[in-house]
Design goal:
Length: 264
């Protein structure tokens, strides 16, 4: 019978204390367990700090780092957030199946710290809606399914995840509703502009958006307010374009060196 070593008590105590300190510092529960097959201790956690950070802090406090492994697993929340971001960046791999998508997202997240944290309230709201729509089961068995989350955004994009499709009200925090150009894009974008909006939240050209609102025989109040809010920007844009054209034509009209020779 092969002898299997047991955990060293002193190292076990140090690691448990270290795991508690690191968990408190990074606001992430970190657990310790002994892998009898590998004969090593492992520090394990979900999302949270990067592996590199924990390895550095581990090496600083204990010389027995060769006996300790570190492992970070990713939650469905972190993977769903990465999927939203990759879709918006145009880099989500849609036709490789859920395992292929998961592998791609794991590589994207890599050693990025706290992959579960949204960048702003809009992204947080989009993530929460995706997780809610991807949830299956009832009661205690109701959990988000990552494959379903991947399928939803692969099929429908991400614009539907926005927390509100109305115009941002005066004084309202940015991002929770739509700004004027976003609202017109959501209302009128067609073709490639519709695809760009649904998958990447890319707005349509300003002039095309206002033209579409003008052509609408019965625009709703939000649409009219959005177009009115954008008119000064369009006016400035057109002024710059006209000034550029005028300057070019003025130079051409006064350039005596290019005056055609008089016919003899």
């Amino acid at each position: 019978m092969r002898f299997m070593p047991t955990p060293t008590p002193s190292l076990e105590v140090r690691l448990r204390r270290l795991a508690e300190r690191l968990g408190t510092r990074h606001r992430t529960p970190i657990e310790t367990w002994f892998d009898s097959e590998r004969r090593r201790w492992t520090l394990r956690w979900y999302d949270g700090p990067s592996v590199a950070v924990i390895k550095t802090e581990l090496a600083r406090v204990t010389p027995a780092t060769s006996q300790v492994l570190v492992r970070r697993d990713l939650t469905t929340r972190a993977l769903a957030l990465a999927a939203i971001r990759e879709t918006r960046a145009g880099a989500m791999r849609r036709r490789v199946g859920s395992w292929g998508q998961r592998y791609h997202l794991e590589q994207v997240v890599g050693d990025r710290p706290h992959p579960e944290r949204a960048a702003d309230p809009r992204e947080e709201a989009m993530l929460e809606r995706l997780l809610a729509e991807a949830t299956t089961g009832d009661g205690q068995w109701a959990v988000p399914d990552e494959s379903r989350a991947f399928d939803l955004i692969a099929r429908d994009g991400i614009a539907w995840l926005l927390p509100s499709h109305r115009l941002t009200a005066p004084g309202e925090p940015a991002g929770l509703a739509l700004d004027p150009l976003e609202l017109l894009t959501a209302r009128y974008a067609q073709g490639v502009h519709r695809t760009a909006w649904e998958t990447a939240l890319t707005t349509m050209p300003l002039r095309a958006a206002i033209t579409a609102a003008q052509a609408d025989p019965d625009p709703d109040p939000d649409t009219a307010r959005a177009a009115l809010a954008l008119l000064p920007t369009l006016r400035d844009q057109l002024t710059v374009e006209l000034d550029t054209v005028q300057a070019a034509l003025t130079r051409a009209a006064t350039d005596t060196g290019n005056t055609p020779a008089e016919a003899h």
